[in-house]
Design goal:
Elements: H1 2-32, E1 36-41, E2 46-49, H2 51-57, H3 69-74, H4 82-89, E3 93-98, E4 104-113, E5 119-128, H5 130-139, E6 149-150, H6 155-158, H7 168-182, E7 187-191, H8 197-207, H9 209-212, E8 216-220, H10 226-234, E9 235-236, E10 249-250, H11 252-255, E11 260-264, H12 271-283, E12 285-286, E13 295-296, E14 300-305, H13 309-314, H14 320-326, E15 330-333, H15 340-357, E16 363-364, H16 366-374, H17 380-394, E17 399-400, H18 402-416, H19 435-453, H20 457-464, H21 468-477
Parallel strand pairs: 7-14, 7-15, 8-11, 11-14, 16-17
Antiparallel strand pairs: 1-2, 1-5, 3-4, 4-5, 6-8, 9-10, 12-13
Bound molecules: adenosine-5'-diphosphate and magnesium ion (MG).
Length: about 475
C-alpha cells in the first residue's frame, strides 16, 4: 500500500518536473522567435509577452504583465491593441501598429476558444514590416495600400462622432447630416481637401448604434486600378476571367451587407463604371462579374469628392444622371477659413489629444492664438491637425510664440509652395544636394503641377503616362497635399 502510494507521488513529482521542463523549453523557444508574441486571457489580462515583443515595442515587461489591454489602450501604452480588438470582435484581426522605436509592425491576432465556445485566450503575433515596407516603396511595387480599401472598422474611425460647432452654418450642416443619418439615403459630401469629408462620412455611419455595429467599407475610387475596380466592387464568379479564384469572390458591395459603402474620390470613378453604379443605386441589386444570380444591395452609400462634379459633368467626364442621383442630399463642407469660430475649438481639441499622446504640456501664447485664428489654413482641418502635432513634438515646454508658430507653418507652407522647387532641370545646382535629392525635388514638382492642372487624379496619371496607383503612391511618398 505504502509502496503503491510513494510510486504515485513519485509519478506526480516526475510529471510536474516534466511539465516544468515543457514550460521552460516552450518559453525559451518563444524567446528565440523573431516575431513578437502577446498572449492575454479571455478578459484581456496580459499573460505573456516574449522578448521579441519587448524589443519591437520598446515597452517594459513590468508595464504590461497582468494589465488589461483595455487599460493599456486607454493609457495610450498600446493605443491600437490588437488583442482588445480580437476580444471585441471574437474574430481574427490584423492591425498595423507603429511602435515607439519607429518600427512599423503587422500584428495578427487570433481568438482561442474552449470546447464550449468560450473565449479563453487571445494571441497576437507581431512582425516588423518597416524594412519590407521601405523595400516595397523602393522597388515601386504596387502596394495593397491601406487607403485603397478599408474593410474592417478601423479603431480610429470608430471614435468619430458628429462634431459640434460654434458656427451657425456648420451647426446646420451637422444637423442635416444627423437627420440624413437616420434615413438610408445616398449622401454626397463635397469640399476642399482636409475639410473633414472622411470624418463626417464616418460620423454619419457611427451615429446610429445599429449601423455602427455594421461594416463601413471605404473605397478610394482614385486608388484602385481601373481594370480591378469592377471585380472589386461587384465580385466575380469562378471562370469570369483568367486568374479568377475558383468559387468566385464576393465584391465590396456584397461585403458591406447592411452597412455603409463609402466611395471616396467619386470623381475618379471610371466613366464606364459610373453607369453600373447608377444601376445599383436605382435597382438596389446587381450581378457579380460573370454571374447571373441577382444580389440585393442593402448598404447605404456615402460618396465624397473634392472635385467640382458639376464641372466634370460639363466636361463629360462624369455622367450627369449619376451626378443628379448622388446629389439628392448634398452636403458642402466649407473651407476652414470660412468657419473661423471652429479654429480655436479644433485647436484645443487637437492640443489635448497630442499632449496626451506625446505626454507633453504644450500651449500657445495669446498672440500666437490670435495669429492662428487669422491664418487662412489652405490645407483646412488636416493642416491644422498636422500643425498642432508638429508644435507639440517640437515644443520647448513654454507657450509657443507667434514667431515659432510662423516657423512651423512656413515649413507646412513649403509643402504647398512649389516655388521652393527648382523651376527647370538646368537650374539644378549642387546646392540642391545629391543627385537623388535633386531628382526627387524635380519629380515632386512635375507631379504637383500635373495634379493641380487635371480635374481628377486619374486624368493626371493619364497625362503623365503612368498608372493611377503609381501616381497615388508617389503622391503619398512626396507628401503632395492636393
Ligand atoms: N470635426 C472634426 N473634428 C476633429 N477632427 C477632424 C474633424 N474633421 C476632420 N478632422 C480630422 O482632420 C483630418 C482631415 O479630415 P478628412 O476627413 O480626412 O478630410 P477630407 O476627407 O475632407 O480630406 C483628419 O485627420 C480628421 O481626423
Ligand atoms: Mg478624404
Amino acid at each position: 500500500m505504502r509502496n503503491a502510494q510513494s510510486t504515485t507521488s513519485r509519478d506526480i513529482l516526475n510529471k510536474m518536473k516534466e511539465q516544468e521542463f515543457e514550460i521552460y523549453s516552450l518559453r525559451e523557444m518563444m524567446n528565440k522567435l523573431q516575431e513578437g508574441i502577446y498572449i492575454t486571457d479571455g478578459r484581456g489580462v496580459t499573460l505573456y509577452v516574449n522578448n521579441a515583443f519587448i524589443n519591437l515595442s520598446g515597452l517594459n515587461r513590468e508595464d504590461l504583465m497582468g494589465k488589461r489591454v483595455y487599460d493599456l489602450r486607454d493609457e495610450n501604452i498600446l493605443p491600437t491593441s490588437c488583442c482588445a480588438r480580437v476580444i471585441e470582435t471574437k474574430q481574427a484581426v490584423s492591425t498595423i501598429n507603429n511602435y515607439y522605436h519607429g518600427q512599423k509592425c503587422l500584428v495578427s491576432g487570433s481568438p482561442i476558444f474552449d470546447h464550449s465556445g468560450k473565449l479563453i485566450r487571445t494571441i497576437a503575433i507581431v512582425r516588423d514590416v518597416s524594412e519590407l515596407d521601405a523595400m516595397m516603396e523602393y522597388l515601386g511595387e504596387e502596394k495593397e495600400s491601406q487607403n485603397k480599401i478599408q474593410i474592417k472598422n478601423v479603431p480610429e474611425i470608430e471614435k468619430y462622432t458628429m462634431p459640434d460647432s460654434r458656427e451657425p452654418s456648420m451647426q446646420e450642416i451637422y444637423h442635416k447630416a444627423s437627420n440624413l443619418a437616420k434615413l438610408n439615403s445616398t449622401i454626397l459630401i463635397t469640399g476642399e481637401t482636409g475639410t473633414g469629408k472622411d470624418y463626417l462620412a464616418a460620423a454619419i455611419h457611427n451615429l446610429n448604434d445599429d449601423t455602427k455595429r455594421k461594416r463601413l467599407i471605404r473605397i478610394n475610387c482614385g486608388a484602385i486600378p481601373e481594370h480591378l475596380i469592377e471585380s472589386e466592387l461587384f465580385g466575380y464568379e469562378s471562370g469570369a476571367f483568367t486568374g479568377a479564384k475558383p468559387g468566385g469572390k464576393k465584391g465590396l458591395f456584397e461585403e458591406a451587407g447592411e452597412g455603409t459603402v463609402f466611395l471616396d474620390e467619386i470623381g475618379d470613378m471610371p466613366y464606364i463604371l459610373q453607369v453600373k453604379l447608377l444601376n445599383v443605386l436605382n435597382d438596389k441589386q446587381f450581378y457579380r462579374v460573370g454571374g447571373n444570380t441577382i444580389i440585393n444591395f442593402n448598404a447605404r452609400v456615402i460618396a465624397t469628392t473634392n472635385a467640382n462634379l458639376s464641372r466634370l459633368v460639363q466636361e463629360k467626364k462624369f455622367r450627369a444622371d449619376l451626378y443628379y442621383r448622388l446629389n439628392v442630399f448634398p452636403i458642402i463642407l466649407p473651407p476652414l477659413q470660412d468657419r473661423k469660430k471652429d479654429i480655436i475649438s479644433l485647436l484645443n481639441k487637437f492640443l489635448k489629444d497630442f499632449n496626451h499622446k506625446y505626454l507633453n504640456r504644450h500651449s500657445y501664447s495669446p498672440e500666437a492664438i490670435q495669429f492662428l485664428k487669422e491664418y487662412p489654413w489652405p490645407g483646412n482641418i488636416r493642416e491644422l491637425k498636422n500643425f498642432v502635432e508638429k508644435s507639440v513634438v517640437f515644443s520647448q515646454g513654454f507657450a509657443m510664440t507667434c514667431d515659432e508658430v510662423q516657423q512651423i507653418l512656413s515649413f507646412e507652407i513649403s509643402n504647398f509652395d512649389l516655388s521652393e522647387l527648382p523651376r527647370e532641370p538646368e537650374n539644378l545646382t549642387e546646392t540642391w544636394g545629391s543627385l537623388k535629392n535633386q531628382m526627387n525635388a524635380y519629380e515632386k514638382r512635375i507631379l504637383s503641377e500635373a495634379i493641380s492642372k487635371a480635374s481628377t487624379y486619374r486624368e493626371a496619371a493619364h497625362n503623365l503616362g503612368i498608372d493611377l496607383s503609381t501616381l497615388m503612391r508617389k503622391k503619398k511618398r512626396f507628401n503632395i497635399k492636393h
